[in-house]
Amino acid sequence: MAKEMVVKELNDVVVRFSGDSGDGMQLAGNMFSNISATEGNDISTFPDYPADIRAPQGTLTGVSGFQVHIGSGKVYTPGDKCDVLVAMNPAALKTQYKFCKPQSVIIIDTDSFTKRDLEKAQFQLENPFSELGIKNEVVEAAITTMCKESLKDSGLDNKSIMRTKNMFALGLVCWLFHRDISVGEKLLREKFAKKPEIAEANVKVLYDGFHFGENTHASVSASYMVPSKQVKEKGRYMDINGNKATSYGLIAAAEKAGLQLYLGSYPITPATDILHELAKHKSLGVKTVQCEDEIAGCASAVGAAFAGALAVTTTSGPGICLKSEAMNLAVITELPLVIVDVQRGGPSTGLPTKSEQTDLLQVLFGRNGESPMPVIAANSPTDCFDAAYMACKIALEHMTPVVLLTDAYIANGSAAWHLPDLSKYPEIRPPYVKPEMAGTWTPFQRDPNTLVRYWAIPGTKGFMHRIGGLEKSSESGAISTDPENHHLMTTLRAEKVARIASCIPDLEVEGCEDADLLIVGFGGTYGHLHSAMDVLNGQGKKVALAHLKYLNPLPKNTAEVLRRYKKVVVAEQNMGQLAGYLRMKVEGVHFYQFNQVKGQPFVVKELTEAFNRILNA
Length: 617
Hints:
The chain is an alpha/beta fold and 617 residues long. Helix content is 36%, strand content 20%.
């Protein structure tokens, strides 16, 4: 026991929970982030799932991690390195120690560090700390033994008792950071409301972990406080991940437009949770169909769009390949459709649980024929709501399929979300046919200003029609192979999408106004790029950030913004897709590049080092 406990106040702290897939690290991490958000801290999380569905227990490939960054002020990333590492077994210690700072505290379950456990994790010595050269403070707690002792009279079987170990670790971490443990109790009772005996067992172990730290001081020299100093906008907040925020954004858009929401989908990691979430909301008129394959999911959504619904299909990169023919059907029929692409590592089936930004060129150009399609990229878990809403608005008002890009990092990561006032969101007004058009209307009659065709819902009296995948006459809507007509229709479809630029916000620049370096990015890298900018400006450098949300069409001031700076670096989690695209669209700018394809988020330290080299070049 430490003789004297010092309480240190910190502005932010990073905690990483790690263990076997079955150790409940995702639940422990989610609960810690919820508890911290309740106390007024800003949060950013990163669930790091193993690629194996169920690796053998105790092996290196089966380690599941969850990193949470809590702060007094604004938190942009889950953090590069952790201040506390919970390692439930030797495999977790071996694979996750690289994420520790030199002064990090490591918490282990000594009962899981037997000779057999060390062999499974491929340790050569009986002392794993010596083998790894670890000199950090280590909290050694016999978590398994204490859980068994705590629940020996509970009536639960051994397997159920073992599942509570994560709550003991969570209780210990809550003590270390002076968290309100009663919030955790409330969360557990809500989660296991239908299994009260499981709820009681987990609550008891949670408090036991807290009291273990309280009574023994857990052999550490200090505990920590992360007070809330940020003045947040008043209102209700919740901890939300990107997939759930996307789901809510789709529901909100359907409500605003007065349409029924239809989702045609096929399960694929990491997008499946959107299907799961929307399936819970039948009471709101949401219809979800799990189809037999990807193209069926998309084709059924095209049919729902023709019938007058807000139609959505969800997938990841491999599914975009398979949906491309049905996506093109929506292009040529000019029907509103939202395609959500939660990007993951590739190529082929790639790394299903890892994050990349490698689908950009695919969604821009990866279809046969001239196939223009608006593309929007969400930049954070909470921004997924707004991005989904705007994708629906553009699709419905401009009669076009729209791709919404997210990625595994923001889809599974979470942040504190201020519940929005939907009355403040812009109206969604689809371009329906008007009664006075009856008798003269044709399927591809257009608004002369926007070039958007008018939408006739099947069953509307006087507007019987048919559309399809063959090229149609711009005048009559009949099938046409006329060369001049095909050129005209191709031009009209492209120009219709291009004119959307007048309806989207200008590209904004954050940071130093007279910057020597402009960082450009898109999608889920926003937090890391913003943090890198803050670090460099704090060092006296002049750096700014322009983060693209609307990728096709680009904001109308994009070229003007990019030409304003001496040096421009495009940072992305691919081999240069955005940089290449910008070279096509913007002349006269030399783009430096920072590219990584690791399946992991950027590391702020690596970004700042690379940007410093460009500044000094």
